[in-house]
Amino acid sequence: METENPEIQKIFSYADVGAEIPWVRLYEVPQFTYFSHKWHIRSEISCAECHGDIGESDQAVRHMVYDMDWCVSCHEERGASIDCMVCHK
Fold first, then answer.
1. Is residue 64 classed as helix, strand or coil in its secondary structure?
2. Least crowded by CB within 10 Å, which of 3, 25, 27, 66?
3. Does the pTM of the predicted model rise above 0.85?
């Protein structure tokens, strides 16, 4: 299971104390959007589902274009909430 991966555990440790993860950002969400890796990982969504084969890459590149339609369709497919306040705080 990916949640047992030591690198994933680092993400949990940052999320548990509410600290920003110190990584190089490839993607930015608008300031009015709230996104947490913690909830996606706990829902057992693999990294590759959103980031492609980034774990196998030797160079960080953008694999996807994220927008609200993409996020909402994923939430609908998985039965996750599409209430506006889930992602917009």
1. coil
2. 25
3. no
